[in-house]
Amino acid sequence: xxMNILITGGAQGIGKGLTDYFLRQKHNVVIVDIDEExxxxxxxxxxxxxxxxxxxxxxxxxxAEVRDAVLAMDxxxxxxxxxxxxxxxxxxxTGPIEELDLAQWERRLQVNLTGYFLVAKHTIxxxxxxxxxxVNIASTRALQSEPHTEAYAASKxxxxxxxxxxxxxxxxxxxxxxxxxxxxxxDDWQAPSRRKAPELSExxxxxxxxxxxxxxxxxxxxxxxxxxxxxxFVSGQNFVIDGGMTRKMIYEE
Length: 253
Fold this sequence. Notes:
single chain; 7 strands
């Protein structure tokens, strides 16, 4: 069955991997992203999927822009079956907290958490009609940290909590789940000016119990399951997709 799927941050990184996966699965995809270069590249690279694809610039921290994007999706495809909240400021390090500028802290929360709230708020009426599904992309940094990543960790921890709160509020009409990716190599899924082949060492791969660094397709496979009827008894959960890294004890030598 063809589904209509909204993917925020869908023009680059993990989001672009999701876009690619679902277009090739013959679904209709609406990409919203703030990066004009990445959006233009998607229009060109996925020209063969024109009938399945709507590409739109949107800052997900702006309620007006989110509302307009949702209306545009409804005009184009008539309904929304699934939403993937993925748009985020990906750089986790912001320096020592005593030197962290309030504007930097607030911007990460606005995009990484408030943006998820706004997208949920404006898609929920449509998802109720289709008994659809919402998937939030968090991070393993919601569960573990490196130094000087407080703003990013707080935003992603908020996404995990936001997920189970939404699932309880919206069930049974809408299922809501979360994915926390670990190290996913996305260097070759960026806008053209930033695109490059991933530079990964054997050590990078071998520190993962699964034997390799992750790929966007690893996340896409879980999203595909979570929005399908096969996951009809799954809601309010956070799925860690990290090759086993958060289960591995590491001691500095």
